[in-house]
């Protein structure tokens, strides 16, 4: 082999260079996946876009929120041709950061740096990471900060631990709570002196007091989010997800990943349990406890609930779980390298597991519905429109008229409050309200909110529970906006 080739191999074998290459590869895999559609990705993207547009045009957020996500989004927007692309860029950057952090975490525990490539290659392949990137980039920011915190604890970097706990509060509240729990667990295992515990407690109380005045961070009203978190009947998160999401929307590769992470999680829990019984300390105990929380079987399962997102965060932990399971096995270079190459090769097709047409809201339809509303608004536009989740955010971003997936918790002139409703039986609406709804597109109709409430009242009084249920779906929001959303 020529000296120049040897130098090149030596250069790219350096951990810092490999880390950058892993970051870039992960970014590109997710970029190809997210740019399958010209619209925003996932259910939350147009909420981010409403916030971004409001900052750029009005100098303030549409919904005040203290988070690192929007400053990062503003930076991406500087280099982006449009705002939708800005969200895609930031999402992919966060995915690349996740892969990089997994590689760095693996380097801490791998005897040979080449072994860390296996765990990084899992993130390149991961359909779960691709889906998570598309759906919840702000959550992914929180996961990245949580992973960085785990890395700081692994290296016993106390200043970084404190800094990352604070930053975690400005990432995402869910992962911030998990991070604080991990730090508490770490302190217990370190047998820290009472003085350190007092300092940590004082710092935590100070942070909690700050959240009382800061929007978008953990606050006292967040308890409403978890009031129905615990169920009396156990469930297994992977099975619940497949049943809820649907087999037809989950690719074979994604299903394989979920099956493998399930087996790995059960194996890690069994291993760590046996070590606890034997009173043997283990580096993998924190990851095992984290998975036990994320996939706790008595969480109440619903697709819009906390358990659903906890599950997806847990599904991202495959490389960390595998890392601690393989620590006790001898390193086999050929097997490790072959597996990493296969996973990298599969990443060229695994990104297709994310299918915007099957897994995202119907933004093309929402665009047509939005344009139809504009053409039917005569005179002064409505002050507020009630529409289901994702349509409400898309409508607000595209038109600039406020829309939300809740009944307003404040008084508003009935002539200025309208609704985009889905009517499976429009003639039934005409029968009870004695007024024809304005058809927009498909089963979407534009009606006054007071007429909708009159219609629902008539259904409750005169029709069967099944017919009422057919109208009161997620596509026809019928709950008053909860208090915790007013602050956040």
Explain what you see.
The protein has 488 residues and is mainly alpha-helical. The protein has 2 domains: 257 residues, no CATH class; 125 residues, no CATH class. 63% of the residues lie in helices and 4% in strands. The chain contains 24 helices and 5 strands. It has a 5-stranded mixed beta sheet. Helix 20 links the parallel strand 1 and strand 2. Helix 2 packs parallel to helix 6 and helix 5 packs parallel to helix 16.
Structure summarized in a few sentences:
The chain contains 24 helices and five strands. The protein has helices at 3-12, 15-34, 45-58, 69-78, 83-109, 116-125, 127-135, 137-154, 158-169, 173-189, 194-211, 237-245, 252-277, 285-294, 306-315, 318-326, 333-350, 356-359, 363-376, 391-399, 426-433, 449-462, 465-471, 483-487; strands at 384-386, 403-404, 417-422, 438-441, 444-448. α2 packs antiparallel against α5 (83-109).
Main sheet makeup: 5 strands, mixed
Counted beta strands: 5
The helix/strand series, from N terminus to C terminus, equals HHHHHHHHHHHHHHHHHHHEHEEHEEHHH
Widest sheet, order of strands? 2-1-3-5-4
Question: Distance N terminus to C terminus?
Answer: 60 Å
* Overall spatial form: elongated
User: How many structural domains can be distinguished in the coordinates?
Assistant: 2
**Proportion of residues in β-strands:** under 5%
**Quaternary structure annotation:** single chain
Q: What proportion of the residues is helical, as a percent range?
A: 55-70%
**Count of DSSP H/I helices:** 24
* Residue runs with pLDDT of under 50 for 5 or more positions: none
Structural class: mainly alpha
Quote the average pLDDT: 88
Radius of gyration (CA) equals 25 Å
